[in-house]
Design the sequence.
């Protein structure tokens, strides 16, 4: 049994919530009403800046109109898309998708606004901020569990939270925190021998962002390693859960774009001289991979080195956890999977021309790599400390003092 310590799970959760509330209060202090429900929520330091505003519009459309036609949310008083074509000239059009029946809709997956809908229904726009706090709390709790749930693991998670751009996304409605919470939850469930839940969470993560299909590929490694016996049955349960988790994304695609395999990223709107066209995100993977990787790692504005230097310890942490005679908390399979998540995340976005994530707060596209690294570092610190304490207990000096 793990010994109790002052930073048990309830205390850890309370501390995480308190820190987040403090961050939110700091953001609201200058103009509470305007920053909570006024136009300031859509400004660069607001919680609905950028993509978050369109997710919020989708939540409003689902709640008020029972659809995902975002025309009235973004252009009140206009009856048809033809009326707003002049305003959609240029980059603004690219923020939307075009549905199969020609309506202005969300290019991203609607799974996030659908999940936050109860919060929006009760509290309006602030409900989306509260939902984000819940997601961040679940994410950090999941990372701490993956790292072993020890005192040192939780302390490292707190350090990782406060010294990386993660804390800058507390005051936000973030799809990236949402997918990370699902991904980490899937790894924890797989390690804890709950393959059906692991598959469901992995499927939901893919439903929330299609590219996560690449990042969940290592999860079966954990399912297989944790099962020990009846591995085929565990993999079948994982696959069944994955199919369940994919259902929301498939249904939304079918509803909006006419086919389960068509996403909004393949029907991104552009308008030139009043003419409507469609663009696909696949055409944007044009960055030279090596240059893109160097940008992700060392860009002076949003690179991992200036914004999350702790991240660079993950190879050392992985080496400690995979060393001979070392038994990581939860076994080795999750360590291998976490390393693969990091490498796949970097490889995926190194060739993307928007590798920087489009936010001055930090590169949200590499959050999966960040949280996986924090879990590895937390587990390694706890494992190393335990080995050091065990070594001291077995040392001749300790034995002579005990005698």
Sequence:
């Amino acid at each position: 049994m793990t010994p109790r310590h002052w930073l048990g799970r309830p205390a850890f959760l309370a501390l995480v919530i308190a820190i987040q509330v403090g961050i939110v209060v700091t953001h609201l202090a200058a103009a509470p009403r305007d920053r909570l429900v006024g136009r300031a929520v859509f400004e660069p330091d607001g919680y609905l800046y950028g993509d978050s505003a369109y997710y919020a519009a989708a939540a409003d459309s689902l709640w008020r109109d029972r659809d995902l036609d975002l025309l009235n949310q973004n252009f009140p008083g206009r009856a048809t898309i033809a009326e707003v074509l002049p305003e959609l000239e240029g980059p603004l059009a690219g923020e939307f998708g075009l549905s199969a029946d020609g309506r202005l809709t969300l290019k991203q997956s609607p799974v996030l606004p659908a999940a936050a809908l109860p919060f929006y229904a009760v509290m309006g726009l602030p409900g989306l901020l509260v939902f984000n706090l819940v997601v961040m709390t679940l994410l950090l709790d999941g990372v701490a569990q993956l790292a072993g749930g020890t005192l040192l693991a939780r302390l490292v998670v707190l350090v990782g939270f406060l010294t990386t751009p993660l804390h800058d996304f507390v005051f936000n409605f973030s799809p990236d925190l949402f997918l990370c919470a699902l991904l980490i939850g899937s790894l924890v469930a797989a390690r804890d021998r709950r393959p059906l839940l692991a598959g469901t969470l992995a499927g939901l993560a893919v439903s929330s962002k299609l590219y996560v299909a690449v990042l969940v590929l290592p999860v079966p490694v954990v399912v297989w390693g944790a099962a020990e016996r009846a591995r085929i049955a565990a993999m079948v349960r994982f696959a069944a859960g994955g199919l369940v988790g994919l259902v929301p994304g498939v249904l939304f695609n079918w509803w909006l774009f006419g086919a389960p395999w068509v996403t909004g990223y393949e029907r991104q709107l552009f308008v030139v001289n009043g003419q409507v066209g469609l663009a696909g995100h696949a055409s944007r993977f044009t960055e030279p991979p090596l240059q893109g990787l160097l940008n992700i790692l060392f860009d002076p504005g949003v690179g991992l080195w200036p914004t999350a230097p702790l991240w660079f310890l993950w190879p050392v942490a992985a080496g400690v956890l995979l060393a001979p005679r070392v038994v990581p908390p939860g076994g080795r399979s999750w360590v291998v999977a976490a390393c693969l998540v990091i490498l796949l995340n970097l490889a995926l976005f190194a060739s993307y021309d928007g590798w920087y994530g489009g936010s001055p707060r930090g590169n949200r596209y590499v959050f999966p790599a960040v949280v996986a690294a924090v879990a590895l570092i937390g587990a390694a610190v706890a494992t190393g400390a335990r080995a050091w304490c065990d070594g001291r207990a077995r040392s001749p000096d300790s034995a002579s003092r005990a005698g």
Summary: The chain has one domain: 9-394. The mean pLDDT is 93. The first strand starts at residue 96 and ends at 98.
